[in-house]
Task: structure prediction
Amino acid sequence: MKNRIVMKLFLLTSGLCLFIILAIFIGQTLFFERFYAEKKVDQLTEAIASFRQEYLNIDEEDRLRQLEQDFYQEHNAWIVVLDENGNIKGTEDYFIELDRAFIFTDTSKRNTERKYIEDEPINIPIYYLINQEELIDQENILNEYPTVEVQGVKKEDVIYPFQLFWRSDDTIDSFFDRQGSYSYTLWENKQLLQEAEEFDEAPLSIYGHVKDIHIPDVTHSILSNPILTDKLKEFQINLLLDNNVETEVQDFEQDNIQYKLLVNPAKNSNGETIYFYTLASLQPVNEAVQMIKEYYIYIVLFAVALVLLAAFYYSKGIARPLLRINDATKSMRNLDFTERITVQSKDEIGELSNNINFLSTTLQSYIDQLQQDVEIERQLEQTRKDFIAGVSHELKTPLSIMKSCMAILQDGVATEKKDHYFNAMENEVNRMDRLIADMLELAKYESGTYKIEMNAFFIDELIRSVYNQLSLKVIDQQIDVNLNLHSVEVIANQDRVEQVITNFLSNAIQHTPDKGKIVVTTLSEEDKVKITVENEGSHIEEEQLEKIWDRFYQGEKSQRSKQGTGLGLAISKNILKLHHVPFGVINTKKGVCFYFYLNKK
Result:
């Protein structure tokens, strides 16, 4: 036995340690990086939505640029707003200005098909041609050799440059005479250059002198990021070529660093399409993973400490079943047999625990039986008390009426109405008789000891029988009763169901105005049949729909003497509960509908 316990302790302790180390390793290698990336995307999505809301509500360019800088500071991600052609919003001050310019619509013919621009200088955007830091370094070259040629593509009267050439000769005429001498490429957009042939219009060339170079404040511009600039170039090309723009989250890697790219289209106040282009680096998570690897030495020390704690825990676990057995036997000594010993081992301790559990279960079953008998006795006593309380309460009114009538007759007052008072007393006596009979029947159903017997019968025949019994009341009130019945055989107690139908139909007749309408319907639903009794008349208030099943409930107190004992629906409720079937009442467009279900044979 000792060896078995030692083996269990060793295996459980070793397994726990291996599980912990494996869980840490898997979490570090598989889930942590993925979790960080997903969390980053969720945070960026929320931040972009907030940025978009602020962006659409402001117009100042400086405020827009500051908004982009704040976004980077808060979320460590670059965001830029593009127009529908992929041009960066807020970079109108990043261009070169050319004067004395010629435009060639065919770059292969230098001396023909040229157009001289005299009216005003041409502004060439260059933020996709050169990085800002490089432009600052090369600005002197343009100042010294200001003659340049710009090649680009044209779409919808907008020029998109993809190459800029410079040469030392500052004479425009020599440009047309010495072909090939200007071929030194200063700046270029390689992505657009590769796709230039895909445009509908052929590439064009612009030749002129650099009049001015406009450079935005480098410290407040996202254009200093070459990775973002390259991605923006690719995005603009897709827009210009009318390719499908990827708006889902994109992943790419550059210089061994993972990046997330998000593109969110929107509409500005003018109804124009704009894009919120966001680039986020996942370099922090790579650093965190590397830090965790270096932290492994501490994890090993922690695992050793955990082994010691686990060994102590499982050694206590061996003794725990014995402690549970002791606690269980103490409870049994105090006649509490509800406690169980949860030991599933195959050794002697497990066998002993099972024997004690069996003994406890057997004793508990006898105690439960005794408690059920006591509960039944308690229910009978409560039913008796309820019966006495109900009778004493409900008999006060008829007894008071009878006492008043007898006093009037004894005093000889209004002798001409003697018959009226005798009739009133007779009605109250009859009502008390019905009340006591109903309460006795209700007490029988509520006692919990009544056993209902089931038999087979046709529900449509039973409904017609009840209707024939109540037909005189229907004729007196000139009520139109429509019986939509199907021949369905059900399993229930026929006498008790007849009582329910009588109560429902009597209640409908009682609350239907003269010349009103009552509809009785049977509907087959799989293994059940639904019986409904719907009458025209006033609706029942929603908060009263559940209360009408209570004993002595009467919706219109003023009609007490004309109506029943207030127990009919309470009796019906208990009968239907004994049948274990659904029932209820709902308001309809024209009145009220009572319904219940019975099981088919």
